[in-house]
Design brief:
Length: 164
């Protein structure tokens, strides 16, 4: 067995410590990025509204511009949650702003619905979904970045979108 030079052993230890520090910093940065961008949540919200917005066709001046919106309201608790809304017309409401939150367009009031109160219950650990088609006016909405504000069963969500 040969004796190692103390300077060489110290250099190896320093090198290993630097590598381990870089790995820990990279892991910490990755975890912070994942949590900060919402890709990982540390806990489930008791009531969670998620939204998926797609644009089936590209914008044209001839329009209309259509957005497909899928909403999901999840009850992550073990208790039933009452659902109550003043009118069937208000189950899903929306309006659109530019990225500076200046009003651009909102839902028209001419959609067919029953103007009666709606009541229900969302069981614990269950969810409900809805699919909606939004028709945007190409004279008001041009390609660019917007914020879509939505209300589904009294729960609000804002979703940044890009019109292409």
């Amino acid at each position: 067995m040969s004796a190692k030079d103390p300077n060489e052993a110290a250099q190896n230890a320093r090198s290993n410590l630097i590598r381990m520090s870089l790995v820990v910093m990279a892991m910490t940065g990755l975890i912070a990025f994942m949590i900060g961008t919402g890709r990982v949540q540390l806990y489930d919200e008791p009531i969670e509204l998620t939204v998926q917005v797609t644009q089936p066709r590209s914008w044209t001046e001839a329009g209309p511009l259509i957005l497909a919106v899928k909403t999901t309201l999840a009850n992550n608790t073990g208790e039933a949650m009452p659902l109550e809304i003043g009118s069937q017309c208000n189950i899903f409401r929306w309006f659109l702003t530019d990225r500076d939150q200046n009003f651009v367009q909102s839902q028209r009031g001419d959609e067919a619905c029953l103007d009666v109160p709606m009541r229900g219950e969302l069981e614990g650990k269950h969810s409900i979904s809805g699919e909606y088609t939004l028709e945007l006016d190409p004279a008001r909405v041009k390609p660019g970045d917007y914020i879509l504000f939505m209300n589904y069963w009294g729960h609000e969500r804002r979703e940044p979108i890009t019109i292409r």
